[in-house]
Specification:
Blueprint (H helix, E strand, L loop, with lengths): L1 E7 L4 E10 L1 H18 L2 E13 L4 H11 L3 E8 L4 H9 L5 E5 L4 H10 L1
Parallel strand pairs: 2-3, 3-4, 4-5
Antiparallel strand pairs: 1-2
C-alpha cells in the first residue's frame, strides 16, 4: 500500500493518504507520527484522503481498534475525502457515534475539505 502524511501545525491538522491494502507496517508508519502529533497539540483535526482501499491485514484489527479508542477523543474534526461510494455512508454512520465532527467530500473537493478543517 502507499501511505503518506503531512502535518499542518498552524491548524493542528494531520493529513494522510491511503491507497491500496493497509498492512501492519503501513499502520505503524502512520500511527506513530499521529500519536506524536496529538501529544504535541492536544486536540487535532484529521484529513483522510482515501484514493483506493483494498482492505487491511486482519492481524492488525485488534491493534487498530485499541489505537482508535485512544486517539479518537483527541480529534475534534475529521474530513474523509474519497470517490469510493461505499466509504462515505460508512464514515457518516461511524461518525454518529463519536463526538468528532465528521464530513465527507469527493476527491475533487479536497480543497474544500482543507478549507472546512482550517476554518473549524
Amino acid at each position: 500500500m502507499t501511505t503518506s502524511y503531512r502535518t499542518i501545525p498552524d491548524t493542528k491538522t494531520f493529513e494522510f493518504t491511503v491507497s491500496g491494502k493497509v498492512t501492519e507496517a503501513d499502520f505503524d508508519a502512520l500511527s506513530g507520527p499521529l500519536e506524536d502529533f496529538v501529544e504535541e497539540h492536544g486536540k487535532i483535526k484529521l484529513l483522510e484522503i482515501i484514493e483506493d482501499f483494498q482492505g487491511f491485514d486482519p492481524m492488525m484489527l485488534w491493534k487498530g481498534m485499541k489505537f482508535d479508542i485512544k486517539i479518537i477523543p483527541h480529534i475534534t474534526h475529521c474530513a474523509v475525502v474519497t470517490d469510493m461510494g461505499w466509504i462515505s455512508p460508512l464514515s457518516r454512520a461511524a461518525g454518529a457515534f463519536m463526538a468528532t465532527k465528521l464530513r465527507t467530500f469527493d476527491l475533487s473537493e479536497l480543497d474544500a475539505a482543507r478549507t472546512w478543517l482550517a476554518e473549524s
